[in-house]
Every structure is written in structure tokens, then in C-alpha cells.
Specification:
Blueprint lengths: L1 H5 L1 H33 L4 H16 L2 H23 L9 H27 L2 H9 L4 H31 L11 H12 L2 H30 L7
Helix pairs in contact: 2-3, 2-5, 2-8, 3-5, 4-5, 5-7, 6-7, 7-9, 8-9
Length: 229
């Protein structure tokens, strides 16, 4: 434990990077998930097919491969487009940005299925009633769809978030100084890798435990007044 305490600063710094990476990736995945869900529920076949291709692509390609493609290939592609069109100059995709884009893109596909199922669980009669009283689409989403969608989506959303938190460890492979990378470097230099991996495990358990408590509170809020079977 003494060596863990000695390296506590780099572990704390790595934890902050991991948390920031997870939160930003979650925000991007929610946006991508909503877009994907409404695409798969669209009345236009072409938009539905685009949504289906997105989720199928993410399910078919390993997460680590996607991260490598975005980090090593994405920067080259973006700069080639900018150079040929003259729309922008040199753009650098660092490890943190590559991690956020990759995790947000991946879990956006899972979130799209979560949100799609939640929207389909809302009784159609409520949407029709809102339309009958003259509500605009934005009002229907804010007043009718969103509160119920959140309640129906929370169990799957919670699972996606917890898996996303664990998946942040993949970013250490491309050199981001997150919790796993810092702990591995410290463990290798002190020849106590096992101790540092135990510390990493404890930190992840704390993060997931706090997340579970917070999401349970959200569930209680949105389930208020709903009689459970």
C-alpha cells in the first residue's frame, strides 16, 4: 500500500482523465443514440436503412479496431479532405479526442436501440392525444415522449453506461494517460504491477458504485407516481 500512496497523484490524475473521457463519451453517445433511434423509426425507408447500417457496423467491428482506425486513420483522412478542398488547415486528433469519438460512436449505436425500444413502449394513444389537442412535435417530445422514454430506457441505459466506463480502459492502448495507462506505467517501474491493477479495480468499482446510486435516484424520480407491478 505504501507504493500506491507514493504514486497517488498520477493515479488521481489518471482517474480524472478516465471520468472526463467517460462523461464526454456518454454525452456524444446520447446524441448519436437519439439520432439513430429516430432514424430507425423514420417513415422514410432510406433513413431507416441508414440507421440499421450504423448499428450493424458497430456490432460487427471490434471496439479496439474502431479506435485504431479513428486514431491512426481518421487524422489522415480529415487532413487529406481539408488539403484537397481548402476548407481547413492541419487538424490533430489526439488520444483523448479519438477516445471520445470512438466510444461515443460505438455506444451511440447501443443507445439508439435503447431509445428506440423505449419510444416504442410508449402507448401510441398518448402521442395521438397530444397531436389532437394541437401540440407541436417539439412539445410532444418534451412533455409526452421524453419523460416516459427516460423511464423505459433507464435499465438498459444504466447497463450501457457501466459498460462504457469499463471500455475507457481501451484508450490506454493508443497512449492516453488515463487511469490504466498511469497505473501500468507505475506498476512496471516499481515491479508491483499486481498491486496497481488492484488499485485500478477498486477505483472502477467506486465509479460504477456511485453511478449505480445516481441512476437509481434518477429512476425513482421518473418513476414517481407510477404503480409498479
Amino acid at each position: 500500500m505504501d507504493v500506491i500512496f507514493e504514486y497517488r497523484q498520477i493515479l488521481i490524475e489518471g482517474t480524472l482523465v478516465t471520468v472526463a473521457l467517460a462523461v464526454l463519451s456518454l454525452l456524444l453517445s446520447i446524441i448519436m443514440g437519439l439520432i439513430g433511434a429516430f432514424a430507425k423509426l423514420s417513415a422514410k425507408p432510406s433513413i431507416r436503412r441508414a440507421g440499421s447500417v450504423y448499428t450493424l457496423f458497430v456490432r460487427s467491428v471490434p471496439d479496439l479496431v474502431l479506435m485504431m482506425l479513428i486514431f491512426f486513420g481518421g487524422q489522415t483522412l480529415v487532413n487529406q479532405i481539408g488539403s484537397s478542398t481548402g476548407l481547413w488547415g492541419y487538424v490533430e486528433i489526439n488520444q483523448f479526442l479519438a477516445g471520445v469519438l470512438t466510444l461515443g460512436f460505438i455506444f451511440g449505436a447501443y443507445m439508439s436501440e435503447t431509445f428506440r425500444g423505449a419510444i416504442l413502449a410508449i402507448p401510441r394513444g398518448q402521442i395521438e392525444a397530444a397531436m389532437a389537442v394541437g401540440m407541436k412535435p417539439g412539445q410532444i417530445f418534451r412533455i409526452v415522449t421524453w419523460p416516459q422514454m427516460v423511464r423505459f430506457a433507464l435499465p438498459s441505459f444504466t447497463n450501457n453506461w457501466l459498460v462504457l466506463v469499463k471500455s475507457t480502459a481501451l484508450v490506454s492502448v493508443i497512449g492516453l494517460h488515463d487511469l490504466v495507462w498511469n497505473a501500468f506505467s507505475a506498476g512496471r517501474s516499481t515491479h508491483q504491477l499486481f498491486s496497481f491493477m488492484i488499485a485500478v479495480m477498486v477505483v472502477y468499482l467506486i465509479i460504477t458504485g456511485i453511478s449505480d446510486l445516481a441512476l437509481r435516484a434518477v429512476d425513482r424520480k421518473y418513476a414517481a407516481g407510477v404503480r409498479k407491478a
